[in-house]
Amino acid sequence: MQRGTFQLMKSVNKSIILNKIRTSESISRAQIAKETSLTPPTVSSIVKELIEQGLVRESMLGSSSGGRKPTMLHINKDAYYVIGVDAGPERVECILTDLAGEIIYRTSDLLPQHLTNKKFLFILQESIYKIIRSYHVEQSKIIGIGVAMHGVVDVEEGTSIVAPILNLGNIPIKATLEKEFNMTVKVENDARAMALGESWFGGHGDVDSMVAVNIGRGVGSGLVINGKLYHGAKGIAGEIGHMTIDINGEICACGNRGCLQTLVSGDAIAEKARKKSNEGISSDSLSGKDIYDMAQNGDQFCINLLKETGNIIGIGLTNVIHLINPSKIVLGGGVMNSEKYIMPGLLEMIQQKVLIKEAGQTEIVVTRLGHDATLLGAVSLLLVELFDPILIG
Q1: What is the pTM of this model?
Q2: Closest alpha carbon to 144 in 23, 46, 4, 12
Q3: How many whole angstroms separate alpha carbon 77 and alpha carbon 61?
């Protein structure tokens, strides 16, 4: 879909009505007017336009308390598509979804070790073209492309300012993709995208404040308050992976010492095992997954290492609770595949460290969306614009 067309589909009243239909699953025109305080003629006029655009469909008549039965309205989820991209640090993954976030098709491409900005952008473009060509979807039916990008992102410009694990910076993602595909493109930090995906598709209900934390090769987080992503004054809100835990610790990719990321990422866990190889780990080439597999096989050293990792994550989350006091914290990323070893120590540490007992009651869960949380978050960047522009920013 051309960028101008997508802009025409959006207006505050349109989006209010669309979101009401989306969250209600089926609703009548009269009920929309009652619940939104819009006038019945306004609702009827906008609904007519939405039906003509293919975004809304009518269904069988609803129940009546007397008089003529109302016609019910639904989102026509198959009318349009969204492309979501999870870019880095190890691979580029793309999905094609309908307007309900149902994944229709996906692709995955490994990133080479030595990248330039030009090569990275080429791989992004080829991955998106692969989605379009493989599913034979008309570009006019795609409302846009959402990109979840590793590292620090300038959301307004759609630029990757720094991607430390990829050793890249100042990548003009939005400008390049919009020129190539002539579609609306939204770019967001991957951990914040994950938070938005959890908010939209994670089944968490009406939570007023939620932090999503992604723990994998790096550590990042996103904060959603009343359905809206919080970016901070300079767009780096949520970088808890660079919270200093040990001022004399290992040097982080960011250049500082003792960041949380240097203690609990998958690479950090593997590195600890390698350094203590004389205590039970003999392999010279280990990954975080190897540690988990050995713990599963009863290796006590690995079990203790993962519990210790849980303790350190718990310290980091205690700082988050004291600073933000969210209703819920959702954990994701490859490291959390070791949930059964990590969570007990994590929760125990929070209970020990919280300032008051009530703060320790913050609900902490592992994502049910798995790795798709970030991809669905990338999709949500477009859905938020379509269904609820009030939440943009």
Answers
A1: 0.84
A2: 4
A3: 20
Burial class of residue 248 (count of CB atoms within 10 Å of its CB; 0-12, 13-18, 19+): exposed
Q: Which structural domains are found in the chain, ordered by start?
A: 3-75 (1.10.10.10), 81-197+373-391 (3.30.420.40), 205-367 (3.30.420.40)
55 to each of 14, 61, 387, how far by Cα in Å? 11, 19, 11
Burial letters 151-190, b for 16+ CB under 10 A, else e = bbbbbeebbbbbbbbbebeebbbbebbbeebebbbbbbbb
The one-letter amino acid code at 86 reads: D
Distance in angstroms (rounded) separating the CA atoms of residues 12 and 22: 15
Query: pLDDT in tens for each of the 393 residues of the chain?
Result: 666 566 555 577 888 898 889 888 789 999 999 998 889 999 999 999 999 888 899 987 655 555 567 789 998 988 899 999 999 788 999 999 999 899 999 999 999 988 999 999 999 999 999 999 888 888 889 999 999 998 889 999 999 998 888 889 999 999 999 999 999 999 999 999 999 999 989 888 778 899 999 998 889 999 999 888 998 888 888 889 999 999 999 999 888 999 999 999 998 998 888 877 655 555 557 788 888 889 999 989 999 999 999 999 999 999 999 999 999 999 999 999 999 999 999 999 999 999 888 877 889 999 999 889 999 999 999 998 888 754 444
Q: Tokens 């990133």 appear where?
A: 111
The two structure tokens encoding residue 83: 């492309």
Please give the C-alpha separations between residue 219 and each of 154, 212, 267, 269, 367, in angstroms, as whole numbers: 19, 11, 11, 13, 15
The secondary structure element, H or E, covering residue 84 is: strand 81-87
In whole angstroms, give the CA distance from residue 242 to residue 164.
Answer: 12
Distance CA 246, CA 147 (A): 33
